[in-house]
Amino acid sequence: MNLTISGHHLEVTPAIREYVQSKLERVRRHFDQVIDIAVILTVDNLTEKEKRQKAEINLRLSGKTVYVESLSHDLYAAIDTLVDKLDRQVMKYKNKVQDHNHQAIKHMPEEMPEDLPEEETPSAA
């Protein structure tokens, strides 16, 4: 699994990098078939009073790409809500994949009844 953490208008400190990695462990614990993760952390200076912190993530799974974003006044709060949203999306995808992998009843092989007399069983002639 490749993990890329980048920042726009923000320097990604080792503390932020460690925080993101520790939060993403929860997602990897639920679903381990992750190909790569790209995290983008952004600080938008809209006005002097209001600074908006944005966290985005692109998670590539086998057969699907999950995109989630979160906005907050605090970067750590944005990362927390981002991971919560991502976890719900991954669990939904995991349940969908598991439900569709079961074989249908009509495709299962038929079992031969054991109580038939020998003359009614098909012979290999």
UniProtKB/TrEMBL annotation:
Domain of life per record: Bacteria
Keyword Cell inner membrane set for record: no
Protein's UniProt keywords contain Transcription regulation: no
Coiled coil: none
Regions of compositional bias (Acidic residues) in chain numbering: 111-125
InterPro entries: HPF/YfiA_ribosome-assoc, RHF-like, RHF/RaiA
SUPFAM superfamilies, per database record: Ribosome binding protein Y (YfiA homologue) (SSF69754)
Region of interest: Disordered: 98-125
UniProt keyword list: Translation regulation
Biased amino acid composition, Basic and acidic residues: 98-110
Subunit structure: Associates exclusively with 100S ribosomes, which are dimers of 70S ribosomes.
Protein name (record): Ribosome hibernation promoting factor
Phylogenetic placement of the source organism: Bacteria, Pseudomonadati, Pseudomonadota, Betaproteobacteria, Burkholderiales
